Amino acid sequence: MLRPVLQYPDPRLSQKSEPVDGITEEIRGLVQDLKDTLISIGGVGIAAPQIGVFKRVVILDLSQARHDPDAPQELAPLINPVLTVLDPAPHEENEGCLSVPDFRARVRRPRRVALDAVDLDGKPVHLEGEGYYGAAMQHETDHLDGVLFIDRISYLKRSLYDKKLKKNRKM
Ligand code: NI
Question: Is 140 tagged catalytic?
Answer without folding.
Answer: yes
